[in-house]
Structures are given as structure tokens and as C-alpha cells.
Amino acid sequence: MNKRFNSKFLSTGRIYRHFFEPILSKDEGIDAETLTQFALAILGQASIYRELPGFKWGLKKLALDLQLHDSRLEQRLFGCKFQNPIGLAAGLDKNAVAAGIWHDFGFGFAELGTVTWHAQTGNPRPRLFRLSKEKAALNRMGFNNNGAKKMKEIIEKQKLLRPGKRTAAIGINLGKSKVTSLAEAAEDYASSLKILSPLADYAVINVSSPNTPGLRELQGSEHLQRIVKRLKSLQGCPPLLVKIAPDLKDKDIDCLAKLAKEEKLAGVIAINTSLDRLGLEQRILSQTGLTLSQEAGGISGAPLRQRGLEVIKRLRHAAGPELPLIGVGGIDSPKAAWERISAGASLVQVYTGWIFKGPDLVPNILEGVLSQLDRHGFQNISEAIGSDAPWLDPNQC
Q: Could you confirm whether 274 is annotated as catalytic?
């Protein structure tokens, strides 16, 4: 085991908490989207100029602080090598501006996008809201992004290693353009993947965002099957996964699992944001004065933890152990990650929890997973996947 370096006085986590915790501790203040754009602008410059001495030194220090290497965490899934099971979820780096440096934050993989064939501005602002007390967020972004052609330019400008040779795998999350009809959805997805596939270790069909009208209808077997077959017909198509919504009924989850197996999809990502208010119906957004039941958009973060676990369990039951699953939604602690892995997820992703808990979340989860492997006597994380092994409190004998 290669333990990470962590400076007691100048750790990444300490710096993050000093500057960002006061902002994240309340709903009001700096707009959540403005803060995200500011951070991505800095990270984008760091990724482009990462080989210059100053940036290189800073990223090396970052990696020493946040990366944790241990062979017990390694897996090979759908042709991709994962040094650890923790990934960055789609939605943060929509335009792939920081594609070259997410591994420096300790991630075993990063999912970029959601990207659409047509550039689009998304829904009117404000459209991203902090729910600080609940460690959650409400978003109705609407797939705002610069389009697939621009993403290709941005990734190529960063001069990444080719797929299969990278420290951390890169997935590209594909969505349907708002101006494209459901009948033409397959061609819309195909247009994006055709130019981005040489840059992707894997690709994700996003048919589950609640913020593009009609998109979730594409989770139906007939629509989804048409999209999958069209994408698989492309030369050099990377491993394909599908991302599903948390609001599906059990029978629909079962149908998706069946389709994934029949069409030989590389895996299923569960879950996206939820239209269910999860007991927060009367929670008032101070920025608008309206309750969550009156607001459009999807909930992410801690309130989704239980539903995310339920969907993974249902998928594992319906699909069996062969289909790789990626768990996302409400994962903000080592225990939450372990529960998802034990229930059947081979990999997990973080986003909202990572924002609230800070960059330390990734190495903290990895240390927690390794502790559970030791306590249960597992030699590799693959033995823990779907084992139903409970979380054992490290503080108890």
C-alpha cells in the first residue's frame, strides 16, 4: 500500500475548508453556478499548462496529497483499467476543460459532459441551488454545453494520452440536443459519439436527466434499443453504458437490466438526479421564495443515498453479477461508498458530496474501503462487490 502524503498544516482539504466551507455553509451568497464556473476556469488553465514548471509542481503536490495507490483497489472492467473505484460523476466538467488533471485529485476515472451534438445554453438562470443544511443541490441546468465539436477541440488541446494509456479512464456522457425530436434522437447521439469516440475510454447514453423535455421517455425499451444499435454500428464505438433515473418503477428497472444484457451494454450507471422531493417538499429556496415542490429540477446529494442504494440492489438482482454497475447519488462518506459496492456496484461516482465535503473525500473513501477489505478478509475489491458485507465500524473491535 502506497499511503498518500498529507501535510498537517497545508493540506488540500484544509485549504478547501478555509476558503469554501463558509460559502457552502449557507444557501445564499455566491451563486452556485458562478462559483463552479470560476473553479473550472482555474482548473482548465491548469490542465492545458500542466507541463509548465509552476503548474507541474502544484499538481504534483496535489497528487501527493490526494492520490492513494493500492493494488487491492484495482479492477479491469469493460476493457478499461481502473486504479481505484472512485470516479467524478458527469455534470461538473461539462465541456471537458479539466480532462487532463482529474486523476491528480485522486479519481480512478472521470466522466465528462453531458455533451450534446448542438451547443446549447440550457435553461434560464438561476438554475443551480445549494441546499446547504441537507448537503444537497437542486439543478435544472438543461444540458448547457458547448457541443460535441467544441469538446473535441478542448480535449485535443490538452494533449491527453490515448484511451487505454491514461492514469485514469475518461468517460464521455452523451445527451440529446433539446432541438432534436425523440424520433431523431439516435442520430443525434450518434453524431456526437462519431467524433468523440477516439477520445473516450467509455461512453454513456444519458436518457435520464429530468431537465430536457421528453428525455426520460428514451428509457423505454424501444427507444433505448434503437439508440444502442445505432451507436454500436459506429466504427470504433467504445464500451457503452446507460445512465438511468432514480424515479423508475421496479418493473422498469428490470426491463432496463434485461435490455442491457441483451444488447451487451458495458454497464449501467444508477442514478441521475430525482424529481421526487424526498421529504423536502416544503423546503423553501431562499433565492426564489418558493418551496421545492413548486420548483423545477432534479435533487442530488445526500437525500438520494437510500434510493441510490435501492436501485443498485434492484439492478443486481435483475441483471445478475456479470453486468458492471456504477453507483452514484448521495455518496459522501466511506460508509455510503461501501454500501453501494457491497450491494453490487463495481465503481462509484461522486459530485455533490465532493463539493460539500471537499477533495479529501476521495482519499478518505479509499482509506475506508481498504479498511473494510481488511476487516472482512477480502484480498481485492472485486471480492466485495455484491457480497452484502456490512459496514464494520473501524472504531469497534
A: no
Confidence of residue 394 (pLDDT cuts 50, 70, 90): confident
The model's pLDDT over 218-263, given as tens digits with 9 standing for 90+, comes to: 998 899 999 999 999 999 999 999 999 999 999 999 999 999 999 9
Q: What's the 3-state SS for the chain?
A: CECCCCCCCCCHHHHHHHHHHHHHCCCCCCCHHHHHHHHHHHHHHHHHCCCCHHHHHHHHHHHHHHCCECHHHCEEECCEEECCCEEECCCCCCCCCCCCCHHHHCCCEEEEEEECCCCECCCCCCCEEEECCCCEEEECCCCCECCHHHHHHHHHHCCCCCCCCCCCEEEEEECCCCCCCHHHHHHHHHHHHHHHHHHCCEEEEECCCCCCCCHHHHHCHHHHHHHHHHHHCCCCCCCEEEEECCCCCHHHHHHHHHHHHHCCCCEEEECCCECCCCCCCCCECCCCCCEHHHCCCEEEEHHHHHHHHHHHHHHHHHHCCCCCEEEECCCCCHHHHHHHHHHCCCEEEECHHHHHHCCCHHHHHHHHHHHHHHHHCCCCHHHHCCCCCCCCCCCCC
Question: Which of the residues 209, 342, 346, 382 is marked catalytic?
Answer: 209
175, exposed or middle or buried, with CB in 10 Å at 0-12, 13-18, 19+?
Answer: buried
pLDDT in tens, 118-150: 999 999 999 999 999 999 999 999 999 999 999
Average pLDDT, the chain: 95
Label residue 395 by pLDDT band (50, 70, 90): confident
Give the mean pLDDT of 146-160: 98
Domain ranges of the chain: 12-384
pLDDT value of residue 349: 99
Q: Which CATH architecture has domain 12-384?
A: Alpha-Beta Barrel (3.20)
Q: How many CB atoms lie within 10 A of CB 100?
A: 26
CA nearest to 183, candidates 211, 208, 149, 214: 214
Q: CA-CA distance, 293 to 284, in Å (whole number)?
A: 9
Nearest in space to 311 (alpha carbons), one of 354, 387, 249: 249
